Amino acid sequence: MKTKSISSLKFMAMLMISLSTMFTFTACSDDDDDVVPTPSQGRIMVIHASPDAPAVDILVNNNVVNTTDLEFPDHIGYVNINTGTNNIKVNVANTATTVIDANLTIVANTNYSVFAIDSVSNIAPLVLTDDLSAPAAGKAHVRFIHLSPDAPAVDVAVTGGAVVFGNKIFTDATAFTPLDANTYNLEVRLAGTANVVLPLPGIVLTAGKIYTVFAKGFVGGTGAQALGAEIIVNN
Predict the structure, then answer these.
(1) Cβ neighbour number for residue 149 with a 10 Å cutoff
(2) Which terminal residue of the chain, N or C, has fewer Cβ atoms less than 10 Å from its own Cβ?
């Protein structure tokens, strides 16, 4: 009897340990299921670059992200957006009239610029991936985008000097290019010629900054639609 009692006690102890272990593992598993991971994200900036389009609203997955009407040639700063496929709409401001409806695949820790481009009758998105790697000491990074719908191919050059970005046609975009931090007098020329179509004096490039310069407006346009250039600071 004594031996059987000891055996029974051992059996019960082992059973309790086993049940306790199973319960502990199950509880941990349930706790893990309750933890919702934070979605990985990228960022987008949206730029109104359609010269004759009205002010617009920007919707990400049907949520308006601009706080004021976005007019040509303004932009909204980078906003966080979940990875995967996201819907981007450009609506005429304060209406349900959609002029651009596109899906954008977002990669984690990646930055994008979405430009609304061309004349309003042909408005379309131009999506670029933005390399925001820090410039080297004493340098700034600059890219040029040709976004004047009716302008011919152009060169961007130092005034009276060397070409910096050559032979760019509508929608062409350069990579971000390191330049010495300085104040530059630049000019836009008809590609391959000395014919200046747009002077760009006093362009200040600050060390450590990243810039996008884009040609805007129409050839022969007036007022806000005149041929010109817009500068965005990306960082």
Answers:
(1) 21
(2) N
* Distances 112 to 119, 129, 130 between C-alpha atoms, Å: 22, 5, 5
Residues 6+ apart with CB under 8 A from 211: 140, 141, 142, 143, 205, 231, 232, 233, 234
**Residue 7 identity (one-letter amino acid):** S
pLDDT surpassing 90 at residue 186: yes
* Radius of gyration of the chain from its Cα atoms, rounded to whole angstroms: 29
HSE-CB for 191 with a 13 A CA cutoff: 11
pLDDT digits (tens, 9 = 90+) for 188-229: 999 999 999 999 999 999 999 999 999 999 999 999 999 999
What are the structural domains of the chain?
38-130 (2.60.40.1110), 131-235 (2.60.40)
pLDDT at residue number 5? 46
